[in-house]
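Hi all, long-time lurker, first post. I run a small reading group and we've been trying to get comfortable going from sequence to structure in the token notation. Rather than ask abstract questions, I figured I'd post a concrete chain and ask someone more experienced to write out its structure so we can walk through it together at our next meeting. Sequence below, copied exactly:
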Amino acid sequence: MISTAKTNRFIKREKRRAKRKKATFYIFILLIIGGLIYLFIFSPVFRIKKINISGNQKVSSEEIISTLKYKNIFLITKNSIKKQLTKKFPEILDLKLSKNLFKGELHIRLVERETVGILCAKDKCFYFDKDGIIFGFASDINGGMITLVKDYSDKNYNLGDKVFDKNLIDNILSIKDELASEIDLGVSSFDIDVYPVEELRVVTNESWYILFNLKNNIKSQLLALKAALNEKIQNRSTLQYIDLRIENRIYYK
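-- Answer (accepted) --
Happy to help. Here is the structure in token form:
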């Protein structure tokens, strides 16, 4: 019979051997993980070698590339690039990112904001898009194809600010289109005096203006305006203003 002492020594040896094997296995796994981390993150194998930019008209490719500080192609994501670029370049709305891992190339296709109009306040003018975001400096352009909004509220603006809500932009564009198509009347500017914007002064290209109440139905006010111009105010050369702000009432001078 095997003595109890010998049995205990055998069991202890087996336990030590099992521990050594487990430790060796863990070290082996750690070496593999460390090697992979080095390969994918620190080694030059997956370093970014080339960045291709497309879709940009307002921001130069050189400015964009100089802004991106990433070196490893695995560490760069669409969200990280978008956050970095849109913070510095408000002109950028969105982007698409693709990678060529083996060549170390990034392909970034930009989607830039489209100009809906120009906002002028104090001594500065800005382009704004359909979301009401101002994204670039502009020149003061009176009339023409571009929609011009003049702000007399003494409010300060910075690039990237959301200045108008969708409802206000829709009203401005609707008024401009209806005046052109239904009355053959051009707009020089849309004037704002206070915030929140509840009233809108529309300066026509004939030098008289129209006062709209944005809390009431714009379509009804435009129909009333058309009726007044057709039936009551046939000579617009001496006209100074038309006030549509009170429902079912039209005042003019």
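A couple of things your group might point at:
The mean pLDDT is 85.
The chain is about 35% helix and 25% strand.
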